[in-house]
Amino acid sequence: MKKCHWTSAIMIAVIGTAITAGPVKAAEVEVNETAYTDVSAMTMWTEPNILREMDLPSASNPASLNEWTSAMNVDDKLWLVGNLESQALFGSKVHVLEKKKGWVKVAAEGQGTPRNELGYPGWVPEEQIVESNRLEKLENEPFALITSPTAELTYDKKGRKDYKELSYNTRLPVVKEQQEEVLVATPSDGNKWIEASDIEIYNNENDIPEPEAKNVIADGKQFLGLPYLWAGMSGFGFDCSGFTHTIFAANGIEIPRDSSVQAKHGVPVAKEDLKPGDLLFFAYDNGEGRVHHVSMYIGGGDMIHSPNSRSAVEIVSLEDSGYADEYAGARRYLEE
């Protein structure tokens, strides 16, 4: 089980007819090549052509994540369970595995899973990925890491003309630094500006400071009240393991994508030895079965998590959360 447990579609025969094409033809990307995500958060599906009409804003280029999520009621969100895989953020690298009638199966780098050594697999519309020789050449250059829940990328300085709203944990190569704005490269549309207050700039991944528990907890608290989204990996919505994975990734710590796999790595921690920043896991059959949920311990008996399709990111007492009877152990990924 991947994300969190919660248990009529209009089939789109040819998704390309319903999606606005991006600035670079995705048909140029071939199987076994690498490409880059060209939308704010690219939603990955279990199969091609299973979208409902209401899902089209998530599958366009540009994608409209807020429009998509705000239009869904609880039942609409529950339908996504089992139909979505994960998400990939703007500018992130993917490996093209397969192509089928306007769709491509990709593996998203940086989302560890035993399902594919290249990254997390899923189907996406061709229009949402592009080749980018420029991003490839800039891979080893300093990058801007978005630290705000979301941030506007703009055509001009001072934010007079918006280009795209991006998510926390998005990384883009830095072209030029100024006092209040930073010029960054995009996958297919040249350079754009972002406010310096929304980012941190690092020379490479190893340059990200080793975080303390207070850092990851503070980052998590930025998203209190953000509605849950199955497969969500962005400031537009998280599932339970997408929340923990993304918070840790933005702090320079790579952990697996899914809760069941997160529960097998890191350092095991006894319940009486819990420290803030530890990840807590919950399983079926009173904690003895398959892991289905993860949260982060924040101290004082409390945890922060993105619970399910009926709720939002919240802080709750572990014992009063409704998960206490399913407690299945804890893992520590932070250095002591």
TrEMBL record:
Endpoints of the signal sequence: 1-26
Pfam families assigned: NLPC_P60, SH3_16, SH3_YKFC_2nd
Keywords on record: Hydrolase, Protease, Signal, Thiol protease
Keyword Magnesium: no
GO BP term (any one): proteolysis
InterPro entries (alphabetical): NLP_P60_dom, Papain-like_cys_pep_sf, Peptidase_C40, SH3_16, SH3_YKFC_2nd
GO molecular function: cysteine-type peptidase activity
Domain (NlpC/P60) ranges: 210-334
Listed PANTHER family: GAMMA-D-GLUTAMYL-L-LYSINE DIPEPTIDYL-PEPTIDASE (PTHR47053:SF3), MUREIN DD-ENDOPEPTIDASE MEPH-RELATED (PTHR47053)
Family of the protein in this entry: Belongs to the peptidase C40 family.
Record's protein name: Peptidase P60
